[in-house]
């Protein structure tokens, strides 16, 4: 069952405040936020690679991308169920980023879910990298409202989805680390399991 959801009644005024603030901000700041919003996900991939090199256990490092993919999957299913139109489609505002096409749903934010899931997964690999990723994840979430493609509640729920799914996945995968390591050592992933 799916239903269309209008997010303007939840925090539409907060959204317009953020977009108006972005519209009155210095151009260089908006350019930086828009670039981060569009390309910042690559930073999370780099952080996961760095985490793999310094991981206490290789299985934990290999589990991080799995947790992120699971969080993305849950987020994508929620998008299809809720079907919330983008705020830039419903509210008359000028945004920094072009409004996504109709049918590219807003709730919850994929960017925020992926970023938050990466941060949580990296905490299990390296607390230092996890802390860096957490700051980057908050910046990613905020940037999605700033550029005008999400309501604030979209990014808040995206972060929540990413945190909850990645935490649960990492706990489960950590419990099965020895079994997974034994199975993975018999596959093409064996070189990745070798101690650095």
Describe the structure.
- The protein is mainly alpha-helical.
- The protein has 10 helices and no strands.
- Helix 2 (27-39) crosses helix 7 (127-146), helix 3 packs antiparallel against helix 7 and helix 4 (58-82) packs antiparallel against helix 6 (110-125).
- The longest helix has 25 residues, at 58-82.
- It is elongated and about 55 Å long.
- The termini are far apart.
Structure summary:
The chain is about 75% helix and about 0% strand. It is an all-alpha fold and about 200 residues long.
| Major sheet details | none
Q: What is the distance, rounded to the nearest whole angstrom, between the alpha carbons of the first and last residues?
A: 49 Å
The backbone outline, from C-alpha atoms, is elongated
Number of E-state strands: 0
Question: How do the helices and strands follow one another from N- to C-terminus?
Answer: HHHHHHHHHH
Number of helices: 10
The portion of residues assigned to helices is: over 70%
Compute the CA-based radius of gyration.
18 Å
Mean pLDDT: 77
- Strand-pairing-aware structural class: mainly alpha
């Amino acid at each position: 069952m799916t239903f269309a959801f209008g997010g303007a009644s939840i925090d539409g005024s907060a959204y317009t405040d953020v977009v108006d603030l972005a519209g009155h901000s210095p151009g260089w700041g908006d350019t930086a936020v828009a670039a981060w919003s569009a390309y910042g996900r690559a930073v999370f991939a780099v952080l996961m690679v760095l985490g793999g090199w310094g991981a206490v256990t290789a299985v934990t490092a290999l589990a991080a991308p799995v947790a992120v993919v699971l969080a993305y999957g849950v987020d994508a299913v929620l998008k299809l169920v809720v079907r919330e139109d983008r705020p830039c489609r419903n509210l008359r505002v000028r945004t920094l980023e072009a409004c996504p096409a109709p049918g590219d749903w807003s709730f919850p934010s994929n960017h925020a879910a992926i970023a938050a899931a990466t941060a949580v997964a990296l905490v299990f690999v390296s607390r230092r990298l996890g802390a860096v990723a957490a700051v980057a994840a908050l910046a990613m979430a905020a940037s999605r409202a700033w550029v005008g493609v999400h309501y604030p509640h979209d990014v808040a729920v995206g972060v929540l989805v990413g945190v909850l799914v990645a935490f649960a996945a990492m706990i489960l995968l950590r419990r099965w680390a020895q079994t997974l390591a034994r199975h993975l050592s018999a596959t093409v992933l064996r070189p990745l399991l070798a101690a650095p």
